[in-house]
Specification:
mainly alpha
Length: 161
C-alpha cells in the first residue's frame, strides 16, 4: 500500500518506529558526543601533564570543584572500583598533582586533595576549555546553553541510579 510504513516501522514497539526512533536518535548522538568527549578529555589531560592518563582528568576536576574527598567517595562518583581508584591516585601523586592527608574525622581514612601545582594546572586547562565552549556556542542563545546544561545534569543524575 503506497505511503504505508514497511512491516511495523511505524509502530511504537518495532525497532526504528514510533518512540524507538527518538531513542535511536539519542543513542546515535550520544555515541558521537562521547567519542568526541573522550578525545577532548585526552587532550585536556595531556595539557595538565604529558603523562596524565585521560581517565584521571575527571578526578582532578572533581577535586577542583569539591575539595578534599575520600578515595571511596571519588571511586563512587567516577564509577570505578577501589583498586582502580588507588592506582589512579598513586599516579596522580607521583605526578605531584594530588596529595593525601589523614581524615581528622576517621584516623583510618585518607583525604585526597589537589596540590597547589595540581590546582594551577587544572585551573588553566578548565579556563581554556570554557573559552572554547564560549567560542563554539557563541551563536547559541544563553537560555539554550542553560537548558542543555540542565538536561545533561538530569541525564547524569538518572545514570547514577
Amino acid at each position: 500500500m503506497p505511503g504505508a510504513p514497511a512491516s511495523g516501522a511505524g509502530s511504537a514497539g518495532a525497532p526504528g518506529g514510533g518512540a524507538d526512533r527518538e531513542f535511536l536518535s539519542l543513542e546515535r548522538e550520544l555515541t558521537v558526543f562521547l567519542r568526541r568527549a573522550r578525545a577532548s578529555q585526552g587532550e585536556m589531560a595531556r595539557e595538565v601533564h604529558p603523562d596524565l592518563e585521560s581517565a584521571a582528568y575527571g578526578l582532578l576536576v572533581r577535586l577542583d570543584e569539591c575539595g578534599r574527598q575520600r578515595a571511596t567517595e571519588l571511586a563512587a562518583y567516577i564509577g570505578v572500583g577501589k583498586a582502580t581508584m588507588s592506582r589512579q591516585l598513586r599516579a596522580l601523586e607521583d605526578l605531584g598533582l594530588v596529595a593525601r592527608e589523614p581524615d581528622p574525622a576517621d584516623g583510618r581514612a585518607w583525604l585526597v586533595h589537589l596540590t597547589d601545582e595540581g590546582r594551577s594546572r587544572v585551573g588553566r586547562v578548565r579556563e581554556a576549555r570554557r573559552a572554547r565552549y564560549v567560542s563554539q556556542l557563541a551563536h547559541w542563545d544563553p537560555r539554550e546553553v542553560a537548558e542543555l546544561a540542565r538536561l545533561l545534569h538530569q541525564l547524569n543524575l538518572g545514570m547514577e541510579k
